[in-house]
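Weekly modeling sync, notes
Attendees: S.R. (lead), two postdocs, one rotation student

Agenda item 3: backlog of single-chain predictions. S.R. asked that every request posted to the team notebook include the full sequence so nobody has to chase files. The rotation student volunteered to paste the first one in as an example of the format we agreed on. Action items at the bottom.

Example entry:
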Amino acid sequence: MVAINWNEFKEFKKHRHGQNDNFSELLEFIKSYYNMSNPNDIYETLKNDDLSEMMLEKRDITDAEGLESYLFKVI
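Predicted structure, as returned to the notebook:
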């Protein structure tokens, strides 16, 4: 598990030109910046950050399986 670097995320978003909503952009950032692909690792990272935890709650994602389902919907 890693701590999300929000400053790097802001820079990442600048180059993406608002292609997706913030949560989808955050997922893409975590996958590329931290080289994560395992939904369990991504979920634990999100769950341990206050802002991203609110994003999970807004989408009713309560576990890694829910995140995995969300990831497959977005793709």
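Discussion: group reviewed the output briefly. The mean pLDDT is 92.
Action items: rotation student to repeat for the remaining queue; S.R. to check formatting next week.
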